[in-house]
Design goal:
Blueprint (H helix, E strand, L loop, with lengths): L8 E6 L4 H12 L3 E7 L15 E4 L3 H14 L2 E4 L6 H14 L4 E4 L5 H14 L4 E8 L9 H16 L18 E3 L2 E7 L5 E9 L2 E9 L6 H11 L4 E4 L9
Parallel strand pairs: 1-2, 1-3, 3-4, 4-5, 5-11, 6-8
Antiparallel strand pairs: 6-9, 7-8, 9-10
Length: 255
């Protein structure tokens, strides 16, 4: 782990003055095996971080900055745990290729959601999707969220679509001829609807239907503290996982 003692991980937080960043700083400070060594925010130079002082950087910045941050961290030999959403297939591929060129043992974890309930809801939905004719996703967030649909909802829909394709299922039935804008975003053939409402934090519903029955999988994150067990797990795991890992479910022992 870049020369640190085996039980002690030195952590920098990017976006440290934001709502999630402040909560991450508090959680890292309270963890006996972690040490908060740097707090960076807008205008601070990520390239100033070095692997001599930092083992893992946690990024909760904004979509316009996060990709450049990760590339700078890879160049510095610092592991990255990223909760900022807005990543595309192309941007993930760019990071994977950069890690390949860099060699070494640097790991990057991109997680659209660190809530354990959200990760489990995604997994349950993918397991159930092959057994239902219809499926749609509704994500509900606070109105300060800048991207829609959320990274969590996109990740959920992609996993559902992959499971349905593996099961040989076609498109869900839909006779819509006009008003497609009211049908939500199309994510790999799965309809995803985004709600932005004051008072919400982060919530998701997956609706699955067959003739005569319906299954609803719902998770609710009422406070940002609910994401901290997942963030701390990511910090502890990324140092032993070289390369790119996408999704917290891939560091959980879900079978």
């Amino acid at each position: 782990m870049n020369g640190t003692a085996a039980h002690h991980i030195r952590v920098a937080v990017l976006g440290a003055h934001g709502r999630m960043g402040r909560t991450v700083c508090e959680a890292v400070d309270a963890a006996p095996d972690l040490e908060l060594v740097a707090r960076l925010d807008a205008g601070d130079d990520v390239a100033s971080l070095t692997s001599d002082a930092v083992d893992v950087a946690v990024d909760f910045t904004v979509p316009g900055a996060t990709e450049a941050n990760v590339h700078a961290l890879v160049d510095a030999g610092i592991h990255a745990v990223v909760g900022t959403t807005g990543w595309t297939d192309e941007s993930r591929t760019s990071v994977r290729e950069h890690l390949g060129r860099a060699g070494g043992d640097v790991g990057v974890l991109l997680a659209p959601n660190f809530g354990l309930s959200a990760v489990l809801a995604m997994r349950f939905a993918a397991q159930a999707a092959r057994y239902f004719e219809s499926v749609e996703v509704i994500e509900l967030h606070h109105p300060e969220k800048v991207d829609a649909p959320s990274g969590t909802a996109r990740h959920t829909a992609a996993a559902i679509a992959a499971a349905r394709a593996e099961a040989g299922l076609g498109a869900a039935p839909d006779a819509t001829e006009a008003g497609w804008d009211a049908r939500g975003a199309d994510v790999d053939g799965v309809r995803v609807h985004a709600v932005r409402l004051r008072g919400l934090v982060a919530h998701e519903e997956i609706l699955l239907g067959n003739p005569g029955e319906q299954l609803v999988i719902r998770q609710d994150s009422f406070d940002r503290a609910s994401f901290m067990p997942g963030v701390l797990l990511g910090i502890r795991e990324v140092v032993r996982r070289p390369g790119l890992t996408v999704g917290l479910e891939n560091v959980l022992e879900l079978g």
